[in-house]
Amino acid sequence: MIKSSNRESYNKVFTMLKDHNKLFENSIPLIASENIPSPAVREAIISDFGNRYAEGWPGERVYAGCVYIDKVEFECMRLAKKIFKAEFADVRPISGVVANLVVYSAFTNPGDIMLVPSIPAGGHISHGKKEHSGTAGLVHGLEIEFYPFDAEEMTIDVDKTKKKIQDLKKAKHLPKMAMFGGSLFLFPHPVKELSSFLKSYGMHINYDAAHVAGLIAGGMFQDPLREGTDTVTMSTHKTLFGPQGGLVLSFEKYAEAIKKATFPGLTSNHHIHHMAAKAITFAEVLEFGKDYARQVIKNAKALAEYLNGFGFKVLGERRGFTKSHQIVFSVLDYSDGGKIEVELEKANIIVNRQLIPGDIRAGRNYFHPGGIRLGTSEITRLGMRQADMKDIASFIKQIVIDKKDPKKILSKIKSFRKDFQKVHYCFDKKLSAYEYVKLR
Ligand SMILES: *Cc1c(COP(=O)(O)O)cnc(C)c1O
Hints:
single chain, alpha/beta, Aspartate Aminotransferase, domain 2, four-stranded antiparallel β-sheet
């Protein structure tokens, strides 16, 4: 190997950063957990807030120099509470996983049991068992039980869940916490239907809104705090179009327990530049969030219908395919999810493979699962609407079903993308969505 000089290594990183932006400028970004923030959010992220410490609660910090940071953080909390109609918001958790850990730490002890959706049923690895290196088991020592799942309806089975809880009680194995929400999330979970039942068994209920926070914020999905959950955790960068980060919402009575778990429990610095960027995002959400969320869901539904029309087996057909930003379809008639993900990437269509109900039983694994998951958040931010979904479905069909050479589709995709270079649903649009900013 030729040794490169320090200057060459330094330059090489910048070349990769620029090439990455170029790639996304010419791609169809369909990862359901990703989004593109506004130029305003990007500006906050490069501010000096990112070089500071502000441990503790605003007004009660352990270091000096926090006068402006405190003002921004109070505003950030005020806006978060306003969006989600919450009594209490902790804006400090630095990610969705950390937000979940805050809630586990505040309301359970190691050895307690938590009821969660399994991964093929949509659960997230941060809800998982120790033997799978899931955060709940590995980091906080929780034992895990799974909700019974209805694969036709693509949601938690209410009657079977009630039966399971009664059985677990008889076996003296009653969960202390119930988790709703997940990563494969087409339809609202039955929180209203189950919350008082679960609470009558003494359970704390958390709703993990990592994926759907932006839809909830826009009033276009379920409203977990009104449906009986005690706490809501989320990421701030999936359908919510903010910086990478986390957030915990709750009621005043749980505020102290959550605050202590966040600091000193699970954060020291809380990525203050991202906190400022959250505040900016929340202002944008209050202004544009409803229109955005409505269009995201319209696009998801249109994309699902076009894919179904082209012959794909789209999950959730009985319920109209989706009520969220996600679409999941089986590719087992053509190949497997792992191989299809690679083929689509050759044409700059960025998707992820997805375990779907039935995969584990059939011996399929995470590397070669049966499904592909798509999300419409980022393409909606880029200004795409229902008619554009037909083009996207057709590109996917040409590669997966017609087995056309992805390299030949790539030039069509590049020209399709030319019309969608700005971020929509934000106040200021001077910078293009993936424009590279040079400060050196
Ligand atoms: C993405 C996701 C998380 C993790 O969020 P990060 O912000 O990446 O830590 C947690 N829960 C669910 C359901 C998710 O989909």
